[in-house]
Write a structure and sequence with these properties.
The structure is a single chain. With 276 residues, this protein is α/β, with parallel strands linked by helices. It contains twelve helices and eight strands. Strands 1, 2, 3, 4, 5, 6, 7 and 8 form an eight-stranded mixed sheet that branches. Helix 5 links the parallel strand 1 and strand 2 (71-76). Helix 8 runs antiparallel to helix 12. The mean pLDDT is 95. It binds S-adenosylmethionine. The site of S-adenosylmethionine has 23 residues, from helix 1, helix 5 and strand 2.
């Protein structure tokens, strides 16, 4: 299994938050799903692997788009997120299948996938070279790897607004550590390039993409306090501090509020590579 910290987060508070906010997150991240579905449709793979598939949105969307000609598999370490993915698949009669395992070490059938993709699911490995080498072995010669990851926190100020606003009131909010497993673990494209080269991928292409995202303002406070480093310490704060944090955080998001909507730009990398 993945490092026990990631294992605990995704089977604990982070996994639970993603399950509870599945509809909202899928709405916010829908533009990335579209990009990945379109890319998959161009190549029409017979077997596709969705890494860190979470609650299954992208796996199910690609399975829907490719139809019965494709076998789509999602892999994830999070039991609660996969339980929701499986229930969603059953609800829509999808043939997509889900495996609960660590993508870094899972003994995939060698050369079995024609495409490997991920929406924000590959930045959490404690040994990324090992992980991507494992995914490369699972891929047929010529198979495409396509992943979306976040660029730096500086380029994504929306994502760190809550923790920056809360820091004076809650000094225990853990700092973001560059290159550490987590949301911004793949922010350095040079590092990603090295990881992919060292794990044996070829034709590596890493392009910046800036994607407009939106969600309803009524969801803002919940969204801002349920995810990221702030969420990890806010539950332990006393009631008075919590109230002040929520007010302060909400005010800090004002520049992103446009009437009934919240709008922000997601600064990401679209990573593509090929199995040799
Ligand atoms: C930010 S969420 C993205 C979920 C999903 N791809 C989406 O876009 O809705 C990251 C996902 O990666 C999963 N993950 C983290 N480390 C993993 C590992 N070593 N192997 C498989 N999945 C992992 C987490 O459990 C989580 O579901």
């Amino acid at each position: 299994m993945a490092s026990s910290e990631q294992e605990q987060l995704w089977n604990g508070s982070s996994g639970q938050a993603w399950v509870e906010s599945q509809e909202l997150l899928d709405h916010v991240l829908a533009p990335f799903e579209t990009l990945l579905v379109e890319a998959a449709a161009v190549r029409s793979p017979g077997r596709l692997l969705d890494v860190g598939c979470g609650t299954g949105s992208t796996t199910l969307a690609i399975a829907r788009r490719l139809g019965t000609s494709a076998r789509c598999t999602g892999i994830d370490i999070s039991q609660p997120m996969l339980a929701l993915a499986t229930a969603r698949a059953a609800r829509e009669g999808s043939p997509a299948e889900f495996i609960r395992a660590d993508a870094q070490t899972h003994p995939f059938e060698p050369a079995s996938f024609d495409a490997v993709m991920s929406r924000f699911g590959v930045m959490f490995f404690d040994d990324p070279v090992r992980a991507f080498a494992n995914l490369r072995r699972a891929s047929r010669a010529g198979a495409e790897l396509r992943c979306v990851v976040w660029r730096s926190p500086d380029e994504n100020p929306f994502m760190t607004t809550a923790e920056r606003a809360a820091a004076p009131l809650l000094p225990s909010v853990p700092p973001r550590v560059p290159d550490a497993p987590g949301q911004f673990g793949f922010a350095s494209s040079e590092r990603v390039q090295r990881i992919l080269e060292q794990s044996g991928w070829t034709g590596i292409d890493i392009q910046p993409i800036d994607v407009d995202c939106t969600f309803p303002e009524r969801e803002l406070t919940r969204h801002a306090t349920r995810f990221g480093p702030l969420a990890r310490v806010l539950d332990d704060a006393d009631e008075r501090t919590r109230t002040r944090v929520v007010e302060t955080v909400r005010a800090a998001f004002e520049p992103y509020v446009h009437g009934a909507d919240v709008r922000f730009v997601a600064a990401c990398w679209m990573i593509a590579a090929r199995a040799p």
